[in-house]
Amino acid sequence: MLRNKIQGLEATDPDFPQLSLAERRKKLRIRTYIRLEIRVSDTSASAIVTDLSLDGLRIRCNYKLEEGDLVEVVLSDQKERDKYGAVCCRAVWVTSFGSPGRESFEAGLSFQDSRENMQRSWVKYVLEQVGFDERKTFQKRKYLRTSGRVPARVFTANSEDTVSGEILNLGVGGALLATKTPILNATQIHCEICLWRILPALRLPCRIMAVREDNSEDPEVTQYLYSLLFLGMDTEQVKLLGNYVIFLINQTD
Description:
Elements: E1 6-11, H1 21-27, E2 28-40, E3 43-52, E4 56-61, E5 70-75, H2 78-83, E6 87-97, E7 104-111, H3 115-119, H4 122-129, E8 146-156, E9 159-170, E10 174-179, E11 188-195, E12 199-214, E13 223-230, H5 235-251
Antiparallel strand pairs: 1-2, 2-3, 2-5, 3-4, 4-7, 5-6, 6-7, 8-9, 8-11, 9-10, 10-13, 11-12, 12-13
């Protein structure tokens, strides 16, 4: 399945922490290994997608594209091709590697398709798997979050004491945090998550967007649910966040 082809999440722009939230989102790139087919005019060739973003994708193939070529990208597997639609792109850049006569090519493609077609495409499905909203990708809302339970600690500026809790869902933009103790007098916090012996600790600045009380698990115990928006992240934090998201995705298989 396509979800098994997702290898990680990263940011390639050195100015990533200085960008706005919307700009940072566009810089996120998903490392993949998806075999597919490209079509240029009447010519077809096999290719591999090596990374993917909201703006476009990078492929490797044995067919030499030219800058400006209009390219239709479809999945190789017939069952998946029937399920997920093709994507129309334009070649933005092309490079070659390998020895003469045995050259391979790498190309950057930008999406040139309509929003409606992107909503039906395999691209939408892959982006959804790492935390982009399954109904609203390529529309207004930015994020979906994958479910799971990850131990967490909260640090506030007003107290040296920490609040323990759990992350209940996690995505590229934020998380849902559950605590038994209320977080008092704080709208911005640092949240640290850690899967001991699996992934290193990740500590991120967050803004509390909303809070509500919940007694669904135990009527006698009040649980506080905090919707968190992630703020500045550097490149290494983005990669580690991606590893957490991918790990939680894999646990649901």
